[in-house]
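Chain A, query sequence.
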Amino acid sequence: MIYVLKSDDKKISYDRELMEGVHILQILNIKYIPLIIKQDTLNTIDYVLVTSKHAIKAILNSDYATTFLQKPIIAIGESSKQEWIKSGGIVAMSQNKLSSGEKFADSIKDSIRGKHILYIHGKEIATNFKLLLSDICNITELIAYESYENKKAFFNHSLNCKDSKHMESKINFKDGTIFIFGSPKNYDIFTKYYTWNETWYAISLGDTTYNKFPKNINKFNANGNFLCAIKLAKSIDNKGLQ
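Chain A, predicted structure.
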């Protein structure tokens, strides 16, 4: 069994055969925070740095969406890049194959030197881009959303027909289960409810999450490539079935 731990229950749009046996476990909920920025300040922005598709959703639902779409963005992650392009925006730079925020920050320094960057992110961050880039450019920050634990994610819910009471039981993950973690917080919440089974496999989508894993578990790093993570998980799963 393969589980993708994420912050929404949206279906993953890849080939149906590839996604067969892949389950979504929504362990985080997202609360959006209204974006407040003066129009004069927004007019001075050269690039918008977005760290996730949640940041983009917050932008598109804001009062400044039209102005934002005229600004080129620096996208962290392929999903952020594609979401912005689909919305009609321009992507100036994006983190495609690089696996860590630190490496990406180093790669764009020459391009943004002396520029004004609007950095839009969640309340909790894995990589502090303001800290990494503030010495070479002017950075304005906006917090666009926060994530919180979905306490129902790890329980099966059913209705007892005899007395019409709702029943719940903790999900039992089998030996050899493969988990794909998109962030350190996903891993932290998961291990709050479960003691890690030595037969399980953990796949991270980047270095920050990978470094969160203990040394003595079965672990892999997909280096920022979600499709690679799915294919790797399928390969491990298929070998386990042989």
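DSSP finds ten helices and 13 strands in the chain. The CA atoms of residues 121 and 143 lie 5 Å apart.
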